[in-house]
Write a structure and sequence with these properties.
The chain is α/β, with parallel strands linked by helices. It is about 50% helix and about 10% strand. Strands 2-3-4-1-5 form a 5-stranded parallel β-sheet, sandwiched between helices. It has a two-stranded parallel sheet with strand order 6-7. Helix 2 packs antiparallel against helix 4, helix 6 runs parallel beside helix 7 and helix 10 crosses helix 12. About 5% of the residues have low confidence. Bound molecules: adenosine-5'-diphosphate and magnesium ion (MG). Magnesium ion binds next to helix 4. Magnesium ion (MG) binds next to helix 4.
Length: about 325
């Protein structure tokens, strides 16, 4: 006999779909966009996320496909739920998790998933340590993800060819069945480094054939990272003082060349440390009154005190 067929209960609702049934079926692209309010999510994505031009254009393509699919369905032209499983590849901190959240919103607004939440997991959430532990673990995760997006970070760790009977294989088999049987109510996004994902797909053709959309997230340029840092500071009511932005620019140029650089995540961490230094600097002088401007300004010295500037020919501050 074949492996048992897994299908996750609670998702059997007949064509689980649209947020609210519209009074009149949409006949135009504009009507679908207006009814679903999906355009505001896409505009937000364009506005809030710096760079990522290839990713944004792929998302527009996918949204167009889904909108047209809705119009086709009204003419009885759609055969069955389109395959929406995706793969997001790119280095750490390139925005994969952030975009997955937006993608879930888009899918939800267009009625392709009931709830639009994202369940984010890694191998350890799916694979057990002992025989018999993996299937219940994987099924529990799938149950939580139903009606939304299951985001599997570093998905290739599910496959360990060096270990003959690795339990990861069992998780993969369950995922494959659910990705096929529950595709009208669950979208799986696999994420990770591009080269490792390619290798994973070569050894797992079943998984590869179920992924309809591959989005590759490029590394950010230094100017993009600077814009991202402006956004991050703005969001927390901080800003760069005179010279500080230039200092952060040279910080980034050095940091990019170092090991473990993680794009926008490294920017976030560097800004956290700059805020700590700013606080220590302000704290040191107990008697000066501090204006709102003092309290919200990151000074060049808060950046230049970073370890990244140690051991270079820079003039002493
Ligand atoms: N294009 C972008 N514009 C603004 N902030 C970004 C952008 N990309 C990533 N970030 C921020 O950087 C951090 C890391 O992003 P994340 O989505 O977790 O990356 P990944 O999942 O690829 O490792 C998050 O705080 C996110 O908000
Ligand atoms: Mg991530």
């Amino acid at each position: 006999m074949n492996a048992p067929l897994y299908s996750i209960p609670g998702s059997a609702a007949p064509t689980a779909a649209a947020p609210a049934p519209p009074a009149e079926p949409a006949r135009t692209v504009a009507a679908v966009l207006a009814q679903s309010q999906v355009e505001s999510v896409m505009d937000e994505l364009d506005r809030d996320l710096i760079g990522l031009a290839p990713v944004k254009s792929r998302i527009r393509d996918i949204a167009a496909l889904l909108v047209i699919d809705k119009l086709r369905a009204q003419h009885g032209l759609a055969a069955h739920a389109p395959s929406l499983h995706m793969c997001f590849t790119g280095n750490p901190g390139t925005g994969k998790t952030t975009v997955a959240l937006r993608m879930a919103q888009i899918l939800h607004r267009l009625g392709y998933v009931r709830k639009g939440h994202v369940v984010s997991v890694t191998r350890d959430d799916l694979v057990g340590q002992y025989i018999g532990h993996t299937a219940p673990k994987t099924k529990e995760v799938l149950k939580k993800a139903m009606g939304g997006v299951l985001f599997i970070d570093e998905a290739y760790y599910l496959y360990r060819p060096e270990n003959e009977r690795d339990y990861g294989q069992e998780a993969i088999e369950i995922l494959l069945q659910v990705m096929e049987n529950n595709r009208d109510d669950l979208v799986v996004i696999l994420a990770g480094y591009k080269d490792r994902m390619d290798t994973f797909f070569q050894s797992n053709p079943g998984m590869s054939s179920r992924i309809a959309h591959h989005l590759d997230f490029p590394d950010y340029s230094t100017p993009e990272l600077l814009q991202i840092s402006d956004r991050m500071l703005e969001a927390t009511h901080y800003r760069f003082g005179a010279e500080a932005r230039v200092a952060f620019d040279s910080y980034l140029q050095r940091r990019i060349a170092q090991p473990h650089f993680a794009n926008a995540r490294s920017v976030r961490n560097a800004l956290d440390r700059a805020r700590l230094r700013q606080a220590s600097r302000l704290y040191a002088d107990r008697d000066s009154p501090l204006s709102a401007e003092d309290l919200s300004t990151i000074a060049a010295s808060d950046i230049l005190a970073s370890r990244v500037f140690a051991n270079t020919e820079r003039d002493a501050p």
